[in-house]
Design a protein that fits this description.
four-stranded mixed sheet; six-stranded antiparallel sheet; Uridine Diphospho-n-acetylenolpyruvylglucosamine Reductase, domain 3; 25% helix; Uridine Diphospho-n-acetylenolpyruvylglucosamine Reductase, domain 2; 18 strands; Uridine Diphospho-n-acetylenolpyruvylglucosamine Reductase, domain 1; binds flavin-adenine dinucleotide; alpha+beta
Amino acid sequence: MTMLREQFRSAFVEDAPLAPLTTFKVGGPAKGLLTVRDTGELQKALAILERFNVPYLLMGRGANLIVPDEGFKGLVIRLKEKFEMIRPIKKTRGTLYLHVGAGVSLPSLLAYTTRHGLSGLEPLVAIPGTVGGALIMNAGIPGFSISEALSSITSLKPPRTLIKRYRHQLHPSYRDMGLPAGEIVLHATFKLKPSTEREVRKRVHHFLEKRRNQTWRKYPTAGSVFKNPEGASAGRLIESCGLKGYRIGDAQISPAHANIIVNRGKATAKDILDLITHVQKEVAKKTGIYLEPEVIIARN
Ligand SMILES: Cc1cc2nc3c(=O)[nH]c(=O)nc-3n(C[C@H](O)[C@H](O)[C@H](O)COP(=O)(O)OP(=O)(O)OC[C@H]3O[C@@H](n4cnc5c(N)ncnc54)[C@H](O)[C@@H]3O)c2cc1C
């Protein structure tokens, strides 16, 4: 960590609290937290990490992440500045290609595409997170995922190799873009349809309406906890086991939606992880189905 401190000065923070950087608001500190401004800085940091064998974790808005109470014993990296750029790059008949950095927040991207009357990403409205996190997770809603609007992704294979993959070279599946483990998303190009601000706003509103009754959003949460098993709904399975409202400490299965865990105030990461294990055990016992977590646990 000494070398990172020397090289990156104020962009590097030692023993950085992570709970405020996640939407669940739980978890201990990271040994180090580094904010990089461009690909060159990222490559420089990764070369240091490789040399000293330090583990690292990419973090967007922490909207799908559980950090353990003991924290993360390596370096957490966040992508800012050049990674927060949105730029139209090419317009062909009926298509506009938009270059978007991995550090751009999804709400900012949606605000941009709405303002410029660009259609294609509207179903992602109200999903928190960054473009990098959303791409890794292949974020979406039933019937649509971010991969559908993709033209290409550029990633970094640590410490220095840049790889550009076009949509047909990717193998996205439900909540997984299928990128090799350890690759870092730098930026992506989306293929959008020029429309009008009014039309795009109407479509955004349509998808927002579907989320109107998500009362669980008033608590710290990471959205859906489990992936839906093939042909079934994780929420319905959990509900059928009588677990709606079930609580361990301040972690609770939302009484409004059984696939959501909310932090009712002072939950610890352990409360949430114990609740996840409890749900998995109960659902497996009663239905024979193993629920696979959708949330990512920042393992040390
Ligand atoms: C209220 C709420 C509602 C939600 N609704 C939905 C929904 O409808 N649909 C849905 O799909 N999700 C939903 N989510 C989950 C979450 O918003 C998405 O998974 C989002 O894409 C996470 O993005 P992030 O930047 O916060 O990623 P993080 O949580 O920070 O990270 C998630 C994973 O991505 C990795 N990662 C992040 N950035 C990069 C990068 N640049 N390169 C490589 N790896 C990276 C992290 O290491 C981690 O493994 C919801 C969450 C909340 C809190």
